[in-house]
Request: fold
Amino acid sequence: MPPRTAVFFHAHPDDEALLTAGTMAMLAAEGHRVVLVVATAGERGLAEIGPGEELRETRLKELYESAALLGCARVECLGYGDSGLSPKGGIAEERPDNAFIDADTEAAARALAAILEEEKADLLSIYDPAGGYGHPDHVQVHRVGKRAAQIAGTEIVLEATVNRDPLVRLLRLAGRVYKFPPEFDVRTFESAYSANDAITHRVNVRRYTRQKRASMAAHASQATGGDSDRTLAVVLKVPGPLYRLVFGTEWYVRRDLPPGTRLTHPFDRWPK
Reply:
């Protein structure tokens, strides 16, 4: 396969580590050009940082470290403000003037499309319409990314997601031995991400879980803060063999392919 260019568009630093890091490391190892774009610096994320540090600067530094570990050739931040998340989920009432969720979709799409055109991107990775678990910035990534691909004429658009069917089963099983924080409701995942039959790409990234784990660890500021266990902190405690099993597959949906499609590589053609 000749070298191609893949652009991964995420809402905040650390989103790439959780959803697409294995795929990014795999493509880079295969000789493809991998570009990471984030909409915001994630400056409203919970964190415990040292005196005098600015969370925005810290999170961008962590982003560049993660990108280097994954083999990214370029990193860009569109510069929008982190919209945050209300305590009950959904759009926060108090947010910055330049919050990504309030951005003009067309203007934001053109900013991303300019990168796609400059890179002559063959592939753009975004999120599913629900933004995975529903964070407003993630929903906006879907809208902006979809429009940017149309403007730039990017052929392949993949929606990074999670197979929610085994996830819900796993969370219910874990709930028998682990007491989740009061605000954590497993039932919310029954409509999050994507059902198994909607997924078109199941990418085996077990060979790259070391890089994926290192990418997660690079976002140290997001493993602390808040009143309950942080997702990254919990994930990084998972033993190696179990980590490879649980996080060794990354899932995507490509909407222009028929239901039931089962591909294993982002650049696989249909039909093969």
About this structure: DSSP finds ten helices and seven strands in the chain. The CA atoms of residues 127 and 142 lie 5 Å apart. The chain has a mean pLDDT of 88.
